[in-house]
Amino acid sequence: MDCLVKNIVFRVDSSLDIGFGHVMRCLTLAKALVSKHTSILFICRKQEGDLISHIKSKGFRVFELPEINNCDKNLGFLGTSQLQDAKDCYDVLENFVPDLLIVDHYSIDFNWQKQLKNRFKKLMVIDDLGNRRHNPDFILDQNFGSNELKYKSLVPKNCMQLLGPNYALLRDEFLHLRNKSLLRRNEFKLNKILINMGGIDSDNYTYKILALLQNLRNFRKIKIIVAISSKCPNLKQIKKIASINKQILLKVDSNNIAELMFQADIAIGASGSSTWERCCLGLPSIQFILAENQKSLAHALSEINAIKLVYDLKEIPELLKTADNWAHELIQNSINIVDGRGASRVASVLLND
Questions:
Q1: How many domains, in total, are found in the chain?
Q2: One domain, residues 11 and 149
Q3: Containing domain of residue 280, as a range?
Q4: Closest CA to 276 of 130, 128, 101
Q5: Residues 346, 318 within the same domain
Q6: Do 87 and 219 reside in the same domain of the chain?
Q7: What is the pLDDT of residues 91-113, one digit of tens each?
Q8: Confidence label for 221 from pLDDT (cuts 50, 70 and 90)
Q9: CB of 93 closer than 8 Å to CB of 120
Q10: Are residues 238 and 308 in the same domain?
């Protein structure tokens, strides 16, 4: 039977303020969907530090909404009203005629969606927060512990809810490396640490952690891999400390983060979407909460001892010293949470395969 979904539009943004997570998970889903012979378009607003060129480099078309000068931060990450953003999208959707519109944006809700309801056949919302009304046919929330009660009064009764880590949007390379990585975790020895605080790391955690570790004698023989984006505002400072310390290997705009995770014995990172990648590969991790939307996930995984959640950099050295005592339990508790097949599951539901 032919797929009824041919044209798909993603409305998603990225910037130094928003971060990269929304775009990266949309790209993962787009790749799963395009393999089913669909036509895909991204609608993104131009902003400082955006990933528009990265989306294009993956072979997808992007319609660029104009950058807003002196945007109003009180209006959220859109920088403008939902009504204005909907008007900006109106003609694009009329010309492309999407069978499915996918929205991944914390500043878009029911008010935006109703302005465009005649410009798409079906709507999917990707969300984590569960704090505003939507009117979609599908909602995806990949957070651990998410359930229908979370969206009971926020979506229509007939909305199909794709909830939990079974639907986590991970790139293919994590699934491909999963079995190999889990075999590697059978015996734990701390030789390599991966530091990945997200693409932007505006609070400069990466540098602070490196400065802390390089002064500890116990860790001078341990290799430290740092994965960071070229858009990180603190990159110059990080490069400087890496240049004078041979144990630090700096990876800027790495396209093989799955391989870096496979090679590492422990990760230190933010409690964002990379959490699912670490779980899939059984990589034990020490994590920080760097944004409001990371709190529920971090606390839930900490409660079942699938991650080590810390609130102060000073906790890291002691955790690393005692890693032999806790790493194996984290590995066992994390590997069953995410299997790496979430993107294909979501694509099958959307395309009715």
A1: 2
A2: yes
A3: 172-334
A4: 128
A5: no
A6: no
A7: 899 888 899 999 999 999 999 99
A8: confident
A9: yes
A10: yes
Asked whether residue 1 is domain-assigned, the answer is no
Question: Bridge-partner residues for 138, per DSSP?
Answer: 124, 160
Give the tens place of pLDDT for each residue, 149-181. Answer: 999 999 999 999 999 999 999 999 999 999 999
Same domain membership, residue 251 and residue 163: no
Type of residue found at 267: A
Task: Record the tokens describing residue 335, joined without a space.
Answer: 């590997």
What's this model's pTM, rounded to 2 decimal places? 0.90
Both tokens assigned to 50: 């955006």
Helix/strand/coil (H/E/C) assignment for every residue in the chain = CCCCCCEEEEEECCECCCECHHHHHHHHHHHHHHCCCCEEEEEEECCCCCCHHHHHHCCCEEEEECCCCCCCHHHHHHCCCHHHHHHHHHHHHHHHCCCEEEEECCCCCHHHHHHCHHHCCEEEEECCCCCCCCCCCEEEECCCCCCHHHHCCCCCCCCEEEECHHHCCCCHHHHHHHHHHHHHCCCCCCCEEEEECCCCCCCCHHHHHHHHHHCCHHHCCCEEEEEECCCCCCHHHHHHHHHCCCCEEEEECCCCHHHHHHHCCEEEEECCCHHHHHHHCCCCEEEECCCHHHHHHHHHHHHCCCCEECCCHHHHHHHHHCHHHHHHHHHHHHCCCCCCCHHHHHHHHHCCC
Statement to judge: residues 254 and 136 lie in one domain: no
- CATH number for position 90: 3.40.50.11190
Nearest to 165 by CA among 20, 345, 302: 345
